[in-house]
Amino acid sequence: MKPVSTKSALAAAVKAARAAGKVMHVNWHKPKRVNSAEAHDIKLELDVRCQALIERILAAGFPQIPVLGEEGSTGDTTAEYRWVIDPIDGTVNYFYGMPHAAVSIALQHRGKSVVGVIYDPFTDELWTTTKGEPTRLNGKIIRVSDRSQINDCVIAMGFSKSKENLKKSLPHLIRISKQCKKIRIMGSAALELAYVASGRLDAYIERTINLWDVAAGQLLVDNAGGEFYSAPAPNGKMRMCADNGKLRKKLQIASLLK
């Protein structure tokens, strides 16, 4: 396959993210059809609709690139290039009327993200980056924070609700909450990563998460001067921490990701 222009791919991803974000915003206060409801998650008809819209826009410019998405995949997702999509990251927030959810789109080459786009339709904030280029928020270059003392830091954490994960995560939550300025549990991995890239959060930690939640955000963090660490977790998931590059040892990330 011929090399894909990251500039063209970025433009397509931005167009798709804004289109899906518009659908999210228009339907925010309208009744929503629930496709499935689990103990700690909700799947909406709107998730499916937004992913279909994103796929149509991306396919118009890149019909040969498969899609790995939260709402299903198309084509050979082990191919050299693939799109990785979360059409509404933070669906539970969105369903309950909380304006903290986003569209996340990444282009990966051989399993590594080379384009990252996250769009928050409620604040009209668009984070973008490509491999080797700075991270931008609405066109302006951004950087991670420079805070290095945990007692000055705001740390976000997320949790899978399995008994095993809670058993292993809660001691770290208690330990870190005693050390840092504030703990935040916000419900959108994409936005938490975008906030780390923007210097709003100093670190974000999650023990069990899917690739589509972080594929775009990890590149935003890396290109904003931060660091993204991950380790394999069961069922194709991962454990991860993103920070400003100054906190990994102080947060004892190695023990948290075991």
Report what the structure shows.
- With 258 residues, this protein is of the alpha+beta class.
- It folds into two domains: 6-141, Fructose-1,6-Bisphosphatase, Chain A, domain 1, CATH 3.30.540; 150-256, D-Maltodextrin-Binding Protein, domain 2 (3-Layer(aba) Sandwich).
- It is 34% helix and 29% strand.
- It contains seven helices and 15 strands.
- The strands form three sheets. An eight-stranded mixed β-sheet has the order 4-3-5-6-7-8-9-10, with helices on both faces.
- Helix 4 (163-179) links the parallel strand 11 (154-158) and strand 12 (182-184).
- The longest helix is centred in the first third of the chain and has 21 residues, at 6-26.
- It is globular, with a radius of gyration of 17 Å.
Short overview:
This protein has 258 residues and is α+β, with helices and mostly antiparallel strands.
Quaternary: single chain
Give the CATH H-level superfamily of the largest domain. Answer: Fructose-1,6-Bisphosphatase, subunit A, domain 1
Q: Give the structural class.
A: alpha+beta
Helix content: 25-40%
- Report the sheet-strand fraction: 25-35%
Unreliable runs, pLDDT <50, ≥5 residues?
Answer: none
Number of helices: 7
Mean pLDDT across all residues, rounded? 92
Tell me the distance between the termini. Answer: 38 Å
Task: List the helices and strands in order.
Answer: HEEHEEEHEEEEEEHEHEHEEH
CATH topology of the largest domain: Fructose-1,6-Bisphosphatase, Chain A, domain 1
Total discrete domains = 2
What is the name of the CATH architecture of the largest domain?
A: 2-Layer Sandwich
Biggest sheet features: 8 strands, mixed
Identify the CATH class of the largest domain.
Alpha Beta
- Shape call: globular
Strand order of the largest sheet: 4-3-5-6-7-8-9-10
Number of strands: 15
CA radius of gyration is 17 Å
